[in-house]
Amino acid sequence: MTGLDEMHDAATALTLGAPAPSRRLDSTGPIRPAVRTFDPLVELTDHMRALRQRAWALVATPSYEIAPLQRFAALGLAVHVRAAQFYAGTDLPVRGGDHQRVANVLMHRAAAWRDLADALYPVRSIDPRDSLGGKEIARSAMLLAQCADLHTTPAPGGQVTARQQRTKQAVNGALSLMGDITAWNARTFDALARSNQLFLPARDLKRDDLSQNVTAAAAALVGGYVALQAGEVAQIADTYNALGSADRPALAARTGQRRTLERSHAPFP
User: What is the CA radius of gyration of the chain?
Assistant: First the structure.
């Protein structure tokens, strides 16, 4: 078209001077917005969103690391314990008005996260790296503790201050984001398990297991490892599935799965 010759020439030069397509794609990663630190509630939400993105990245770019899943399990425990502490110690309105029931539901979930963390703790993978690290999770846990310490009573007449409402929203937001993290962690563990690259220290096996497996007994004597057995894999996978059905009602709704109100975020308006 007339008048577009210069633009065409510039576009051609830009294309010819660009690196190979594979190199361009390999160097492209997800955008990670900076964490805003001017307000603890905003910072908590930003950290949890960043951690959700990291959980998604483990699915999008698989590796043989087990350490990130172990750290996320610790995060799930912290989120639910602190949320339970928050609801048990505040007079903010909740659906049904039963704060203790809400706290009990959250502590039940926290116990499941504790069991998952215990099951994952001894597991080793072929890749000993820990690309996630613990700094962001530790900071999130500290901010959650600050939220849990909010024990102020609403003003007379049942009014709720803006700060109290924002704190409740931040706690509920952390629970919701943890739901997405749970779903992606389950997929990451499934991929790891199918790779047959997960191991347990042989010394951690029960005596009956060692007596029936000469190879495992020999490995235990020298401090070696054995492959994670199908029973342990199924137990961990079942825990992820149970936590997923409890922690991600929004995702369940998007995929057409049945929502269980008793175990969803329904009690936390």
Answer: 24
In a domain, 2, yes or no: no
Residue 153 lies in a domain: yes
65 residue type, one letter: E
- Is residue 112 in some structural domain? yes
Exposed/middle/buried for residue 234 (C-beta within 10 Å: 0-12, 13-18, 19+):
exposed
On whether residue 9 sits in a domain, the answer given is no
**What percent of the chain is modeled with pLDDT above 70?**
68
Query: Furthest-apart CA pair in the chain: how many Å?
Result: 85
Question: How do residues 55-82 score in pLDDT, each as one tens digit?
Answer: 999 998 888 899 999 999 999 999 999 9
Residue 189 contacts residue 61 (beta carbons within 8 Å): no
Predicted TM-score (pTM) of the model is 0.76
Structural domain including 99 reads 35-263
Number of separate domains in the chain: 1
Does the pLDDT at position 171 exceed 90? yes
**Among 265, 254, 226, 235, which residue's Cα sits nearest to residue 115?**
235
Q: What are phi and psi of 256, to 5 degrees?
A: 80, 10
